[in-house]
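Reviewers asked in the last cycle whether our approach scales beyond single polypeptides. To address this, we selected a multi-component target totalling 1096 residues and predicted its structure end to end. The input consisted of the following lines:
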Amino acid sequence: MDGLMMDQPLLLSGLLWRTERLFHDKKIITRVGQGQYHSYSYADYAKRVRRLASALVDFGVKPGDRVGTIAWNHYRHFETYFGVPGIGAVLHTINMRLFPEQQAYLINHAQDSVLMIDADQVSAVERLVEIGIPSVRAFVVMGEGPLPETSLEPVYSYDELVDSGTEDFQFPTFDENTASAMCYTSATTGDPKGVVYSHRAMVLQAMCLAMHDKLNMSESQVWLEVAPMFHCNGWNIPHTALLQGATLVLPGVHPTDGDYVEMVQDLGVTGMNGAVTIGTMMRDFVRASDRKWDLSSLKTMWLGGQAPSRAIMEWWERTFGTHVVQGYGMTECTPQICFNSTKSTLADQDPEAVYALRQTGGQPIPLMKIKVIGEDGTELPWDGTSVGDFWVQSPFTASEYYNDERTKESMVDGWFRTGDVGAINEHGYVIIKDRSKDLIKSGGEWISSIDLENALMAHPKVREATVVSVPHEKWLERPLACVVPSDDSITEDELRDYLLTSFAKWWIPDSFLFVSQVPKTSVGKYNKKEIRAIFADGGVSRVRERLA
Amino acid sequence: MDGLMMDQPLLLSGLLWRTERLFHDKKIITRVGQGQYHSYSYADYAKRVRRLASALVDFGVKPGDRVGTIAWNHYRHFETYFGVPGIGAVLHTINMRLFPEQQAYLINHAQDSVLMIDADQVSAVERLVEIGIPSVRAFVVMGEGPLPETSLEPVYSYDELVDSGTEDFQFPTFDENTASAMCYTSATTGDPKGVVYSHRAMVLQAMCLAMHDKLNMSESQVWLEVAPMFHCNGWNIPHTALLQGATLVLPGVHPTDGDYVEMVQDLGVTGMNGAVTIGTMMRDFVRASDRKWDLSSLKTMWLGGQAPSRAIMEWWERTFGTHVVQGYGMTECTPQICFNSTKSTLADQDPEAVYALRQTGGQPIPLMKIKVIGEDGTELPWDGTSVGDFWVQSPFTASEYYNDERTKESMVDGWFRTGDVGAINEHGYVIIKDRSKDLIKSGGEWISSIDLENALMAHPKVREATVVSVPHEKWLERPLACVVPSDDSITEDELRDYLLTSFAKWWIPDSFLFVSQVPKTSVGKYNKKEIRAIFADGGVSRVRERLA
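The resulting structure, written as structure tokens, was:
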């Protein structure tokens, strides 16, 4: 017996329908210069989104066509978030920080037909044309003022394109499983892999984020989206803000740490999300600044990519009353798998235990199923200590990679193998020990690089730390620590003694390299692959030299 | 181009999967006597739900079979909420307050194969068997102790049935459009009409309620479900509480106003939902009680069925800091259409304007579309004054009534005609003026019975008031007011003068009848149909006599 309910698909345009009627007076604010902001209402936003959609149809963009973007976080980029999927086309957000060859690979693999790029990306895209991106039949430049001089051909102004459309455009209705967006994620080996999102997945993910009381994305929030909008749809946060009618703040082109701090104070930002390094850099900026900053409007700082250290959590809480939260997500999951909040029944434990909980990836969000699989393929108990691979399943988890043979390595019996390793405790808190590719297997026993990193970063003289696996003759693998000190008086012995208070002797890294920077990936995570490659190239001394 | 996301259906068993893993230590508490409670964890709940599901399968209940319940709000009834739909069967909650003939009609129309009933309903159900309910092939009695003496045959003990099942039962996976539950709603004329919910509709509705920051159904809530669980799945609130891991409090059999008050104080209840009369009766109980009550734990009181008066809102806010909220829903919408919260941009108006907003039905919840249609069939603007019929569309709105010819009167072009009349303001707040069947059309102009009722109920000497349309020779229809005084010194002239300060002369009811009670429907709304019938039977004097 079927239910007798309307067959109404979950479409992104459905979210917009409500927002423009209920929250038309709420604002989207983009930083356009030092202390300068472009601000317009969701009503104006929705009109421009419909103009854009109508212009794209007139332009010949068909359902299923891929439209690429190479852009910063700003209102025009956000218009493409609803304008492109609204007509059944697919928004392909391209990572701005990749090398040209990698960007060209993505564009060719996705077969983008139109590229929408920021004005400051024009010369970089000219380079892509030289490499060869034959599927692209038009370039659209987003920015103020006249089109820059360029060899790109044909090239259009984004604002003129929008102006050519009609704001009366009606979004078509189609199946909710229609592709809405795509995003590539780096692979352990080989080229990046493409994930194709559906309208259903993105609407459901936004709803699951919206219902999280600790993220608290409600109408009254003023939310600063620092996470790049080219990465997993900006963690799906712009959609969630729009769904709830929150004020959305976008940092515009080339923002600095100081710009983030200034935006929070100027605009009374109440919540923000970004990579862990953003929280660290904002802290360092405030500490070093001559001005006295009041960031106490900021109640929620969601830091992602890796676990924020306890030191960072405590500094923000103590200094501005800001609650630092984290989650666990990946491109393949639209992106959240877990989100961390302290259950009311666990909040009355001693502070150490609460912090330990807060440093986990959190509990699976609604609709998300997770299990932990041991080396022998059996499901392990949720006891907080049994370590295995995390497998996940949900309506917003990828079922395959786009045109990619590697799908079969990641999908097993309807579950997605995350490639992450860890345990789950009895309350469903997911404790991530490592990416399986970053695991350190020393003398047959494994060592968690993440546990060591978290401990090192909690040391008062440490600013950043990463621990990687390097080859070893006797033990096969051993940990190597790269540490960015915040105090030059730090010594190797000091760190070794400090770690010995928490870890067994054989866990302690053989070398502690004091370096001035840890290489990061294009989305701000520690780039362990690069460190391992430098090590392979010349050992400890080469790493010390390259990261000096 | 399709998205490449997993085809994971939205099933009620999926919500349970998460709750029993993440919130297993949270509690479901049922009142079982004066100050006495049955309390068990979601872990124990989930085990019993799986035992129930397995036992029903063994019992021969097949996917699509209807399983009826006639029961109060308690943990056994709540077990059927997930146990029955979990195996693909359909939970048919039957209104306990209907006449036997009506209940028999529902059971026969739905073709219930099993009836699960409370022990205190046994003799009533024996009467149903006399009337004839041939589809029912087994009766299951929920309650403590041995089975009561009964002619029902075959009859089983619910607890024994549950004990016979296995807690290792695995819920099957099926299409999310599968029927999960059904509920009948009274019709203007003729028999009640059946609404068949799907798993998809109920999961989406629960998610939309969960993401509402003013309802604030979060993990830390202790939620008292007063709304009957036989009515629209208890407004879908039990599912939302389970989804979020909130503590759920159920008032058990034959609860009184004093029981509700006691439960709030005893258990530290933080939120509750029930008919408007519950809020009034609890207030009256507290006022009349010799004891001093502290209900300040109660932050949210959601009153439904009709609009709570400003007097009630103010009393709760002033006395206990309780925020009274309302929504707009109906059986056909699973059930919420709108929920009321004050937008941050409207909160700084003068208090009168904020109260006026709070007395509307609120804004459409996510995924819900609404429009207002004028007499000529055109869509009217959202200007707060253009009055027409509300039409709605959503994934949780009925597309048809179950086996019912009357579907065609209610469904137009993929929209459901609610039968309610009103306007929508520029921020999407839905201002309900009347049920179309309750509209008063006097001399070609219409009068809102709801506006008059709200005004009357704000008068300090009025406890309850309803206004109905009665036939009139010259004007065709005129308003008649039935008023339950809270102060016997009240006079007709006093009320007339009072209304004249807000309404045109021709809006003022011709008669004000002071009565001791207003008849209510089985779900606690004012029964205007009954008052009109009494009037038809003998005019004003007959109404005065019958409601004395």
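Chain B has 17 helices and 27 strands. We regard this as preliminary and will revisit it once experimental data from Aim 1 are available.
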